[in-house]
Design brief:
621 residues, alpha+beta, six-stranded mixed β-sheet, 16 helices
Length: 621
């Protein structure tokens, strides 16, 4: 009997694989996944509802490139999600770093002086709430422009220059006779000089020659009148290259994120991991180009964006591999307790680790040897609709989503990273995993299991419900004309109360402008779907006024229930000619606004026309 023979080794494999990937400390809880509005309990989950991320990061990146790049040589290479205290309340925000991309300078400006001495750094960041929109559908910016402007008291950037970042791939010389370009200012440019102590002192002629030989700059550096003995070379300025050069024995998360400290300085934080392929009895999984069977997020690396100071903080003192490296390089690593408080409150559960843990947990949540042997309850990460590089719709595994929320069974809100599961080859949800980032709970994870006797809609099923909604589908079809197209953001699955809330932003983007603007917010529970032109109106429609702190928008949202509803009540008799005139006016306004390209207002007039026709249909015969 194969199972009998293998049973002891299955026990070894499941136990030690869970230990190798840190899954032996996962806390399991039951989640009822109820379907009613009451189960969502909006009154007691305001922190979660007020921080639902409606800005898809791809859409925000495209928008910022239009409204905040200011000049063609700036770029926003990435969007980061974090939490900050805004006016005494913790809010989930999105940050983007404005970096200088030398390749975007005009071809005539590509020379040694510009590249090495003048265009040396990026400038500043933008910050906006994850669900903040202007009436035009653009982000509500709390930090923006050059010089940096803040709309929040106490939120400021004291050192906005970015000498070390994600696009800083060239060497530069600072403290030279040339003033450095800082940012554009009207018809002139604001200039600056580097004031830090980072980099390598160039010194006398012989030292300069040696540096020029090493940096392959023999034709220019030794003979430049702009460079003095006090000038400095800033090299390895790309934060990924910088940390890899200092500690090549660690594996790094490819996505560093920017942090604004309490002192107003900008810093990059990167997650670093120790790995092994020799952990006994543990199953191997692929991580990039490596085949591993052990992983720990033992180190957080902080790189100062101005002077490049790089510090390695050890967060997992129980990891034997990092303990060995600390014994070899005692001055390289510092204890996590020495990290400044302004940075410590921005550490987060790493995406790279959660994705790998979710893959492993899909199989290794089965602890019973017989169930494991037969693969009776295999899980996979839920899939969603996405866009391929060619712009075609495709299904792909969901990415971890950072949420500021109150976990079921907990008292206060916290910053967590969540990822839902589906049964293998099925679209319905079966559970979700949450990696915790705040306070004493940092680094721990929780898995919530759904009842196996209940069907809980997955992301693909919610997407299908959106496509099948007649009114919503008609509106999207209308917008996909007249020189514009609809752009749908990522569908978010957010636990709130005892239910799951699904949220998807929908943007409208002109064919000639890559700047999407929010036009609809779609919210759904298991048996109810609602949408509106704003988050507040969609919430009012979904919860039927249960959220007293949110005011409904002037444009009513439409809602659709999957459970049977009673027929609309007979309205009082109305004057037929007045109703016909109202419908005719709405139709004329709709045609005029469509011709003028004002599609948002045209959509509102179309809704008014539908309501006028409904009145005609329901008036007494």
């Amino acid at each position: 009997n194969e199972l009998v023979r293998e049973k002891p080794y299955i026990v070894y494999n499941t136990d030690l694989t869970r230990r190798a990937y840190g899954l032996n400390q996962v806390v399991q809880r039951e989640f009822p996944a109820e379907t009613t509005v009451e189960a969502a309990d909006p009154a007691n989950n305001q922190a979660t509802l007020q921080n639902i991320r409606l800005w898809d990061w791809h859409a925000l990146q495209d928008t910022l490139r239009q409204i905040q790049e200011i000049r063609t040589y700036y770029d926003f290479p990435d969007i980061d999600i974090d939490r900050y205290e805004i006016n005494g309340t913790t809010r989930e925000v999105m940050l983007a770093t404005r970096e200088l991309n030398f390749d975007k300078l005009p071809e005539s400006s590509h020379n040694w002086i510009n590249e090495k001495l003048i265009y040396t750094h990026g400038y500043g960041i933008t910050m906006n709430p994850v669900n903040g929109f202007t009436p035009e559908g653009l982000p509500t910016l709390m930090l923006s422009n050059m010089p940096i402007q803040s709309t929040v008291p106490g939120l400021s950037v004291t050192r906005p220059e970015v000498y070390f970042g994600e696009l800083t791939n060239t060497d530069v010389y600072v403290k030279t006779q040339q003033k450095e370009f800082n940012y554009p200012q009207g018809q002139t440019n604001n200039l600056t000089s580097y004031e830090g102590n980072g980099g390598i002192l160039l010194g006398g002629f012989l030292r300069r020659m040696i540096i020029a030989l090493d940096r392959d700059d023999l034709t220019k550096l030794p003979f430049s009148d702009d460079v003095s003995k006090d000038s400095r070379l800033l090299m390895r300025r790309n934060v990924r290259d910088r940390v890899s050069a200092l500690a090549p024995f660690l594996i790094y998360d490819p996505d560093p994120y920017i942090v604004l400290g309490d002192d107003g300085r900008l810093s990059w934080i990167m997650d670093a991991f120790t790995i092994s392929d020799s952990y006994p009895y543990s199953t191997h999984y692929r991580l990039g180009n490596d085949l591993i069977n052990y992983m720990r997020n033992s180190v957080k690396v902080v790189v100062d964006a101005y002077d490049g100071t790089t510090t390695f903080y050890v967060f997992d003192t129980d990891d034997p591999i990092i303990a060995a490296y600390r014994a070899i390089f005692p001055s390289l690593f510092k204890d996590a307790s020495t990290m400044p408080a302004g940075l410590r409150k921005h550490v987060r559960y790493p995406e790279m680790l959660l994705k790998l843990q979710a893959d492993v947990y899909g199989l290794y949540h089965m602890m019973d040897p017989e169930a494991f042997y037969n693969r009776e309850d295999l899980w996979t990460v839920a899939t969603e609709v996405g866009l391929s590089e060619g712009g075609q719709q495709t299904t792909q595994a969901m990415q971890p989503n950072f949420v500021l929320m109150k976990l079921p069974g907990e008292t206060g809100e916290e910053f967590v990273e969540i990822l839902p599961f589906t049964p293998a080859n099925r679209n319905n949800l079966i559970g979700w995993i949450a990696g915790r980032s705040d306070g004493a709970q940092y680094g721990t994870s929780v898995v919530y299991n759904f009842p196996k006797t209940k069907l809980v809609d997955g992301p693909l099923q919610i997407e299908a419900r959106i496509d099948q909604n007649a009114q919503l589908s008609g509106q999207l079809t209308l917008w996909n004309q007249q020189g514009s197209h609809v752009r749908r953001g990522a569908l978010l699955v957010i636990p709130t109360g005892r239910a799951l809330l699904y949220a998807e932003p929908i943007y409208l983007q002109a064919e000639r402008s890559p700047m999407p603007e929010l036009r609809l917010v779609v919210l759904a529970l298991q048996d109810r779907l609602a949408y509106g032109p704003t988050f507040e109106s969609a919430m009012a429609s979904l919860f039927g006024g249960a959220v007293s702190s949110m005011s409904a928008a002037s444009v009513p949202a439409e809602s659709e229930r999957r459970t049977p509803v009673s027929a609309p009540s007979t309205q009082p008799a109305a004057d037929l000619n007045a109703l016909i005139a109202e419908a005719a006016k709405d139709l004329a306004d709709y045609q005029r606004l469509t011709a003028e390209g004002k599609l948002g207002e045209a959509g509102q007039k179309l809704e008014q026309l539908k309501r006028a026709l409904d009145k005609l249909n329901t008036r007494p015969k």
